[in-house]
Amino acid sequence: MIATLPRIVIEPTVRNALIEDLGLAGDITSAAVIPVGHRSRLAMVSRNPGVIAGLDAAELAFQLIDPAVGMVRHMEDGSVVKPGDVIATIEGPSRALLTGERTALNFLGHLSGIATVTASIVSAISGSKASVVCTRKTTPGLRSLEKYAVRAGGGMNHRFALNDAVLIKDNHIAIAGGIAEAIRRAKASVGHMVKIEIEVDTLDQLQDAMQIGVDAVLLDNMTPVQLRQAVDLVAGRAITEASGNINPTTAAEIAASGVDLLSVGWITHSAQVLDIGLDYI
């Protein structure tokens, strides 16, 4: 069971999307064509195979237009669908259904696309101990929903924002004057509850980091051979996270190196939308 996002978290995002679509005059097409009081029933249907995510946002898009709209879910987020599967049926005032349709499908298709590609990598590494995690490479304003979609696809979340944990990257290291100095400054600055992770791209840098000690190491763009060497060097003293060139084809070999996490940015910033339609029934 996937922990859903509270309505208070997603409502501002959905509301803003509706405001963007309604503009200054509202849905002039539905107002002109559809009689007041007319009611309809629509089926939300998958056109492609995939994994569903975003039903709460989709339902909210209709209900913010008119609370009289009702949705009956035939599947839940995290469900695997095939072409032709009916995900949900929506019933209510026709004008509200047509006004909310595009916003609802935009959320559902986008988030389901993220869940689908996440699931493809999770499946590819199913024989390993590794987990798939997302990054902060998210659409501005949609981070909580996109990271939720990653969880719906079987993945895990990396930090949500800059204040979650310390992640010392290459530019931090360069400006601080080196790995050792960057780590020392971080340890002197943050509290005991804050984790510290550092990005390295060579085994020499990793050795320097481990001499001082960190909670996690981000092994950036290393080959599977280098990753295995890195895992041996760390020897369980820190969480190991692989990053770079991770896709369903390469994921299994990378995971077989023994790393704990596969960090994948494109599952949120470049996932293909899952084609879902809304059909009159």
TrEMBL record:
GO terms for cellular component: cytoplasm. GO terms for molecular function: nicotinate-nucleotide diphosphorylase (carboxylating) activity. Residues 27-112 form the Quinolinate phosphoribosyl transferase N-terminal domain. Pathway: Cofactor biosynthesis; NAD(+) biosynthesis; nicotinate D-ribonucleotide from quinolinate: step 1/1. It comes from the Bacteria. Its EC number is 2.4.2.19. It is an enzyme of class 2 (transferase). Residues 114-279 form the Quinolinate phosphoribosyl transferase C-terminal domain. Pfam families: QRPTase_C, QRPTase_N. Belongs to the NadC/ModD family. This is Probable nicotinate-nucleotide pyrophosphorylase [carboxylating].
